[in-house]
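User: I'm writing a tutorial on reading structure tokens. Could you give me a worked example: one chain, its sequence, then its tokens, then a sentence or two explaining what the tokens reveal?
Assistant: Sure. Here is the example chain.
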Amino acid sequence: MKENAIGRPVDIVSIGFANKSLKEIAEIVDNEGKKGADLVVLPETWPGMEPETLDGVTITAMAHLAQKHKMYVLSPIFRKGNGIKRINSAVLLDRQGEVAGIYDKVFPYWSEFDLDPPTEVGMDAPVFETDFGRVGIAICFDSNFPEVWKALADKGAELVLYPSAYSAGTTLQAHALNHNYYIVSATGAIDCIVYDITGRKLLYESDKELNISRITLDLDRGIYHYNFNLEKLDQLLKDHADSIEREIFMDREQWFVLRAKQPGVSVRKLAYSYGLEELRDYRNRSRQEIDKMRGFKFYEKVVKATYL
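And here are its predicted structure tokens:
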């Protein structure tokens, strides 16, 4: 937690480019680290087509910069698999330059199976704990498959990073809207798009050769449904008017967003202490309770079987 920070902010830098050398990108990442980035995100398989190991030149260089500037770096690579295949991976490095997690692309694009060696299919969509929150990752063609994004939500993702060869656009907006996490992209299309927990577009930037987007996101902001929460909200706001506020009221969706106004206050923890149920939890509980009324485990047998 940053000293005197309001909420749970994370300073994110998305770097979009195509066909740049390791030396060029290392210099850019180094400069962003000097400016105080918490997290730098790079595009899908940006070093090129040659498979590498985790102790290869790319991850070694990025790990050095992560440790040097005490920041996280997400560096996708084609990773050497255990057998004869390659893996389209995104490697998350922590502030000590250690591997904090690896996501293997669950839905490689068709041309990836024609490579030599071919690409292996990922089997899981994990969520990784960082010192600023719970981070999920999806890569490029994954944008077309809702089960990946549902799995990340079920595992508690607050922020999803999307390294990609293309922009995806409103496809990502749909996932942010349905699952109420932030999404930040870094692409070989040389752009960046950021969606809010409400599904609102917070930022879109692009360039012809190099795009560097910087944004600060507060992962402590909470989103709630009107149902069963409004009386508790009134009491919460009455008791803590100086330290929290209702930032957004979305009448058509019947949602609202709360955020902290003072350092040292977690609006989500405070709301929980008043019995407010977050929107994602409300949906999950409703699904489970209604499925019980069907007389069989519909969700587990029919729906969950399609998810990761």
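What the tokens reveal: The helical segments are 22-34, 57-69, 146-154, 170-179, 230-239, 267-273, 279-293, 298-303. The two ends are 32 Å apart (CA to CA).
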